[in-house]
Amino acid sequence: MPLQKLQFRPGVNREGTIYSNEGGWYDMDHVRFRSGLPEKIGGWQQISNNQYNGICRSIWVWSDADLGTGNLYIGLGTSSNYYIYQGGIYYDITPVVQTDTLTNPFTGNGTTTVTVTDSSYSPSVGDSVYITSSAPVGAAAGWGVDGWGVDSWGGYYGSGVTIAGTYTVTSVISSTQYTIQTSVPVTGTGGGTVTIAYKYPAGLPTYITGNGWGAGPWSRGAWGSAYSTGIGQQLRLWSNDNFGSDLVLAPRGGPIFYWQDSGTVSTPAKYLSYLASQTASGIVDASTFTSGVSSITVSSANAPYIYPFMTITGTHIPAGTQVAYNYVTGSTTVPITNTTTGASSGNYSFSYSGGYVPTETYQVISSEVQEFIIAFGANPYAPGTSSITINGQQASGSTFNPMLVRWSDQANPFQWVPIATNQSGEYALSNGSFIMCARATRQEILVWTDSAIYSMQYIGAPYVWGFQILMDNTSIMSPNASITVNNITYWMGRDRFYMYNGTVQTLPCALKQYVFDDINQDQAYQVFAGANEGFNEIWWFYCSIDGNGGGISNPNTQVDKYVVYNYLDNCWYYGTMARSAWYQTGIVQYPIAADYNGRLNYHENGNDDNSTTTTLPIDAYVQSSDFDIGDGQQFGFVWRILPDINFNSSTCANPSVTMQAIPRQNSGTAYGTADNPQVVSPQSFRNTPAYTVNQFTGQVYTRLRGRQMAFRVESTGQTGVAWQLGAPRIDIRPDGRR
User: Fold this and answer.
1) In angstroms, rounded to a whole number, what is the distance separating the alpha carbons of residues 124 and 220?
2) Mean of the pLDDT values across residues 479-495?
């Protein structure tokens, strides 16, 4: 009988049984398809040996090459902090809510758990604090504790432990006490003069559903009502989906922050502060004013930073005087109180801040072409209803509307008050109960609610933005579950995949049942999408029900698996990998992903797992569905395999894989091994049905008998291996009916 070529359809199909999918692939891990052929995926390399705190949820990459420095920056928001990575260092720029100065607030009982006493601020578990102290705490004494000198009993006496740096709140004892963890045991009370900067409160690292008892920290929120937003406690998701001349971002369910330069552009000395309290100062020279002048006109000629709601201060100006900038005349008029003496000398300074900026939002993005800042889910504009004053200005303190879209004036991120002479405004969506997310594409902004998808397009004054429902009775799995590639948007819904290329379509998926039955729906908010355009792939990462698919420490609540759609070959595949965020940009050569060890990694870089200082192999395999002779009316006997595989890009000396033809008596029976191990061959197959194959293996001899069988290729335990399977052949002949 002639040789039988083993050629299978690209992609994995788990919609049927392992036999009904004859001619296809059925199972795999760490393998992709390129030009229809399976190959091992590329490796990953840590960007820096340094680590960040928290679980990274969002990544953004940009370069300041236009300033002539060529520095690469990576912004990453974690469950506890916001960082800027540059030059191997993660710079923590998380906004500080409050800074307290305390005296001897630390207490240790001989363990690494230290109690902090502060009566003026009560953080939450997971919050980040930055501590400086003037004195060590106590004297650490006992066996094995490093210190100065040794006593007569052989125990060490230490000089105490200085607590300084960034720490995470591990527990809250009361409204005045909480605990942190130190690297060495601490005994006694002390710290001297201690300054504690409390960072912006962190969100929960995992999604918790339900109300009342057991829904997050005890007694958090009113009994019988969901916490904060009315739709359950949510992950803290930093929004990085915008970058123009400045970076505007917001944690989900939190205020808007604004990224500014501190004045040193050659270093990452940046900071974040509330958008509603941005200020800038300018000087108006009034030395030429004459007696009797009753006002001063401030125009854009005086300084480039003149915006609405300016606060003017000066010798002849009432304290706290605020005036509105006139868009028509391009100026503002400021009254001078003493008209007798006039303003014969002195300078007048002014500052400005945004007015009625939303104090809470789900997501913020920028429309870069039209130059708007847009908040999805926001406080509506309601003058006179707020008791919140920021920098002398009344903020928008009205009731939060989870279906409201608000936007700033064009090219003016500080102006959120809709008036006839600007283009700021708001619009309440009608289909759904809350906005899940938004994504800017080339021609429009797509907005997902929990039950529909909208198209948001700029139409100019007076309505500014138009909204159209593209499809109702649809869904999206999480705020980060969508991705746009080649102007086509793909996303994962609650029970299917979608694509939008002008019309919304359901994306056929050969793994639909397998994936959605495998997802831990309680952690659906952790699902995120990423693009790997070098291989024409869309990746979705998710938490599986069985957990630990990526070797993670917290099964079921951490992302451990992925599913991939190859839009060029139109096929699907999947695998295991523990990642929490993904980003690809043309600025850097490789996709960037965040792991659960506080590191960013360049993917498709090398062949191995280099996420730490120790190189580890990436085990990979692909296994076919069962095939047979005819319809399996006769047993097949395989006596040799002729491999077809290349090891291009391998970096080890002797790369190899194992190949298996795995027989089965019938569809309902378990896979077996060779039924007669006495085979004359350079290799012994007495106990091993897997055959080692390298670059120059011409054929391997087997003795396999079964009514149906599967084919498997695998590489394990060897670093530096890269491989792509071609079209191997088997020598198979009929061998009876039973």
Assistant:
1) 11
2) 96
Please state whether beta strands 645-646 and 656-664 pair in parallel, antiparallel, or not at all (unpaired). unpaired
Question: Using CA of residue 596, residue 601, residue 603, residue 609, what is the dihedral sign?
Answer: negative
Q: How high is the pLDDT of residue 388?
A: 46
Q: Which residues contact 515 (CB under 8 A, 6 or more apart)?
A: 509, 542, 563, 574
Residue type, 398: S
The C-alpha atoms of residue 59 and residue 595 are separated, in whole angstroms, by: 12
Residue owning tokens 């047993």: 635
If one compares 65 and 704, the residue with the highest pLDDT of the two is 704
Assigned token pair, 433: 């109960």
CATH architecture of 282-352: Sandwich (2.60)
User: Alpha-carbon distance 261 to 103, whole Å?
Assistant: 34
C-alpha distance from residue 365 to each of 238, 417, 474, 574, 735 (Å) = 11, 18, 22, 31, 66
Residue 355, judged by CB atoms within 10 A of its CB (0-12, 13-18, 19+), counts as buried
Q: 87, 119 in Cβ contact below 8 A?
A: no
CA 77 to chain centroid, in Å, comes to 7
The two tokens of residue 718 are 């060897």
Average pLDDT, the chain: 81
Per-domain residue ranges for the chain? 4-30+619-734, 53-92, 97-148+155-199, 238-272+359-477, 282-352
pLDDT at residue 313, rounded to an integer: 65
- According to DSSP, the β-strands at 44-46 and 609-610 are parallel
DSSP secondary structure of 111-177 = EEEEEEE-SS----TT-EEEEEESS-BS--EETT---S-B-TTS-EE---B---EEEE--EE-SSSE
The structure tokens listed for 198 are: 């409390």
Task: Give the model's pLDDT for residue 315.
Answer: 63
pLDDT tens digits, one per residue of 242-290 = 554 567 777 777 777 766 554 333 344 445 666 655 555 555 555 555 5
- For residue 387, the model assigns a pLDDT of 45
CB–CB of 59/600 below 8 Å? yes
Environment class of residue 178 by beta-carbon count within 10 Å: exposed (0-12), middle (13-18) or buried (19+)? buried
- Whether 36 and 10 have beta carbons less than 8 Å apart is answered as yes
Burial of 636 per CB tally in 10 Å (0-12, 13-18, 19+): buried
Provide φ and ψ at 682, rounded to 5°.
Answer: -60, -20
The pLDDT confidence band at residue 702, using thresholds 50, 70 and 90, is confident
Read off the pLDDT of residues 501-537 as tens digits, 9 standing for 90 and up.
999 999 999 999 999 999 999 999 999 999 999 999 9
- Binned at pLDDT 50, 70 and 90, residue 96 comes out as confident
As a whole number of angstroms, the distance between CA 33 and CA 674 comes to 30
At 555, the pLDDT band (50, 70, 90 cuts) reads confident
Q: How many CB atoms lie within 10 A of CB 151?
A: 9
44 forms beta bridges with 603, 609
Domains 97-148+155-199 and 282-352 equal at CATH topology level = no
Answer whether 198's CB lies under 8 Å from 129's CB.
yes
Would you say 312 and 348 are in contact if contact means Cβ atoms under 8 Å apart? yes
CATH architecture of 97-148+155-199: Beta Barrel (2.40)
Q: Which single residue is written with the structure tokens 């990694």?
A: 601
Q: Cβ distance 272 to 313 under 8 Å?
A: no
Confidence of residue 664 (pLDDT cuts 50, 70, 90): confident
